[in-house]
Structures are given as structure tokens and as C-alpha cells.
Amino acid sequence: MEKKIDLEALLAAVGAEPSSVHQPAASEFGERLRAALEEAVGALREQELVDVAEDHLPILLAEVTEAGLDSRSPKQLMKRVVRTLIASEHVEEVYGTDEMLFDALRSFLDPE
């Protein structure tokens, strides 16, 4: 049986700030992206396309923001965010299809 490491507990034990580890670089774009993704993930939860526990939201938002920041184009950003949502261990269940997730996210992330 593989043991999961509780990163926040480990960081707290060594006196580090756990929340700082989950925060992406604080560029203006990064902050705007994180805010948009926070709204988008909230909408996905309201539409019951994903099931995310409230206490997992900060870590999930950091994950999808980081995935978006690692993108080279708007199209790649959408793909990375959707893939990260689907693969994240912080998402309990995904009920929407990839296409449904893309459509729901587009209104929050598409600049047009």
C-alpha cells in the first residue's frame, strides 16, 4: 500500500507556510487567471459538472492556475486546465464530458 504524503502537514512540521507552496507566481496575469479559474470552478460545481470538497478548492485552484500559466497559447491553456481538472486527486468526481467542461470554462477564460 502506497502512503500519501500530506504536504501541508510536512511543511507545517518544518515551520514553512503551507499556503505559500500552493500559490503560483504573483504576476498580474497569474492573479487574473486565478480569479477567473476560481469563478469557473465555482460555476462547474454549481452546474454539477465536477464535485470538489470545499477544503480541496485552494489546492485545486493552485493546480489549475499553474497548468494555465505553463501554457503557450489560449487553446493550450484550456486543454491543460481541463486535463488538470480531470486528473486532479483534489476533484472527487467529474460528471461532465471534456466538451462540457470546455464550454463551461470558455465563458470565463475566452477573451472574446
Question: Helix amount, in percent?
Answer: 55-70%
Topology, number of strands = 2
Helix/strand-derived category reads mainly alpha
Alpha-carbon Rg, integer: 14 Å
Write down the overall mean pLDDT.
Answer: 83
CA-based shape = globular
So how many helices?
6
- Which regions have little confidence, pLDDT < 50, spanning 5+ residues? 1-5, 16-22
What's the story with the biggest beta sheet? Answer: 2 strands, antiparallel
Order of helices and strands: HHHEHHEH
- Widest sheet: strand ordering: 1-2
Proportion of residues in extended strands: under 5%
Rounded to the nearest angstrom, the distance between the terminal CA atoms is 48 Å
Please render the helix and strand layout as text.
Blueprint: H1 7-13, H2 18-21, H3 28-46, E1 50-51, H4 57-69, H5 74-87, E2 93-94, H6 98-109
Antiparallel strand pairs: 1-2
Helix pairs in contact: 3-4, 3-6, 4-5, 5-6
